[in-house]
């Protein structure tokens, strides 16, 4: 007996599936909810009088997206049956497939996707009794201006030989085969309407009474479903309020921890600065003090000048200069017409010169420059009593 399998997807279900995929950040996974119907068709032709075929149709009504990726399986592809039992406790019998969406990639399933599909087929086989679990791989690409979105999707399954194969899919309102006999959609035996019809026993009742009984049973079932939906909506609102409360608590906790870590960091930085300061002070106390000879000479000159001014000596000649004061710059004779000013000698004390030196002109000076020869001009040098020294500079005359 030949057999065929086909996936039927309504336009509403396809729109909902693409909507959930586009609104996701990157990748998304979920389950396909629907029904599975099978029927045997006998095709009679001129060549063969009897040709039976098993036609299986997988009808997808809606999708069940998951909040995160890799929620019900391990990285190796092994299924977490405990997680699946918690997620699909009430809708496990209606799950007919699984979908995976990736952006800007190929729809060809990976080796891990095949392992996941095989594990899911084995898990849901106890609910359907046969290997009809399908897998849908989706992807999309956008144009350069992001004005056009192109979606690509394809269905597949693990066959009886444990090989992955693709399945034909038919989407309502997007494309229908014009050839062949178009069959009406058949409801499965476990659907709600068939259960109501079976319970009312319309075959043994009048037509009018049967219609009224069916309408009454439908109203009762609708009220039951409305109560269940209201209860689920209230549960969702409570969970959303709890999530909001937990988010605010977590935010406050994170802010407190952040402030505590910042205060600890500031305190550690202050302690480190204090330790560095104490260490620097200790090193400064251990180091020997260095005295500048020029500063000592300047202090001596200032002390001697102040003592002379106290005795009433306001002016003095060149010969009245104290013995502790540095001598005037020496003139070194370099030619009959020009002389050189020895500036470094003016910065040295007489006691700083070596006792064994016979050179009184100090020709090893660092700075020398020419001055005019005024040996025949006699000029009185007036000494300023308010001698000021700045740093290592020489006194002002």
From TrEMBL:
GO terms, molecular function: microtubule binding; polyubiquitin modification-dependent protein binding
InterPro entries registered for this protein in UniProt: FAM175
Pfam families assigned: MPN_2A_DUB_like (PF21125)
GO term, biological process aspect, one: attachment of spindle microtubules to kinetochore
Domain of life of the native organism: Eukaryota
GO CC list: nucleus
Signal peptide feature range: none
Residue spans of biased composition, Polar residues class: 303-314
Positions of the UniProt region annotated as Disordered: 303-333
The protein, known as: BRISC complex subunit FAM175B-like
């Amino acid at each position: 007996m030949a057999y065929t399998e086909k996936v039927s997807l309504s336009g509403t279900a396809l729109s909902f599936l693409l909507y959930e995929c586009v609104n996701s950040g990157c990748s998304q996974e979920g389950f396909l909810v629907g029904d599975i119907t099978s029927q045997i068709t006998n095709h009679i032709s001129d060549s063969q009088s009897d040709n039976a075929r098993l036609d299986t149709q997988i009808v997808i009504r809606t999708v069940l997206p998951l909040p995160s990726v890799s929620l019900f399986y391990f990285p190796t592809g092994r299924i977490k049956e405990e997680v699946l039992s918690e997620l699909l406790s009430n809708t496990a019998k209606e799950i007919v497939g699984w979908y995976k969406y990736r952006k800007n990639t190929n729809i060809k399933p990976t080796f891990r996707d095949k392992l996941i599909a095989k594990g899911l087929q084995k898990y849901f086989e106890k609910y359907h009794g046969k290997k009809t679990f399908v897998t849908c791989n989706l992807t999309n690409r956008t144009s350069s201006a992001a004005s056009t979105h192109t979606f690509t999707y394809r269905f597949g399954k693990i066959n009886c030989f444990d090989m992955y194969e693709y399945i034909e899919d038919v989407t309502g309102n997007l494309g229908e085969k014009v050839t062949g006999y178009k069959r009406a959609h058949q409801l499965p035996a476990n659907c709600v309407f068939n259960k109501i019809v079976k319970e009312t026993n319309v075959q043994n009742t009048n037509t009018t009474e049967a219609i009224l009984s069916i309408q009454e049973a439908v109203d009762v079932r609708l009220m039951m479903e409305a109560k269940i939906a209201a209860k689920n909506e209230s549960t969702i609102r409570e969970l959303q309020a709890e999530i909001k409360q937990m988010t605010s608590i977590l935010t406050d906790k994170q802010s407190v921890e952040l402030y505590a870590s910042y205060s600890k960091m500031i305190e550690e930085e202050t302690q480190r600065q204090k330790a560095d300061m104490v260490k620097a002070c200790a090193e400064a106390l251990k180091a020997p003090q260095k005295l500048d000879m020029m500063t000592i000479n300047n202090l001596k000159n200032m002390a001697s000048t102040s003592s002379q001014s106290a005795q009433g000596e306001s002016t003095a000649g060149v010969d009245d200069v104290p013995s502790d004061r540095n001598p005037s710059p020496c003139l070194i004779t370099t030619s009959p017409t020009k002389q050189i000013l020895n500036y470094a000698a003016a910065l040295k004390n007489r006691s700083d010169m070596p006792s064994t030196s016979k050179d009184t002109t100090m020709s090893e000076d660092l700075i020398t420059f020419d001055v005019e020869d005024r040996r025949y001009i006699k000029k009185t040098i007036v000494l300023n009593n308010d001698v000021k020294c700045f740093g290592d500079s020489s006194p002002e005359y």
